[in-house]
Design a protein that fits this description.
Layout (H helix, E strand, L loop, with lengths): L3 H6 L1 H24 L9 H20 L15 H4 L10
Helix pairs in contact: 2-3
Amino acid sequence: MINWKVRFKNRLWVVAFVSQLFLLAEVLLVGVHAAGLTNFQLTEEIKGWILAVVNSVFALLSTIGVVQDPTTAGMEDSDRAKGYSEPKGEGK
């Protein structure tokens, strides 16, 4: 199980998560319009802005080398990380 409380205290993880929410919102809006459920359509200008924001965030994160828990395999947190109440090193 993933310890969500600890992840949301990690600013870098939150930034990556929010940028992915932008991407998800774009995909959902395009899909809802394609299915004929709404008249709202993303213009090329809006798509360009969303893409620019997401790309900028990902470029920044890759530049500073954001990697979440590289010591564990897969998507799960380690047993040690599951016991944290704050991200390691931020409680000092």
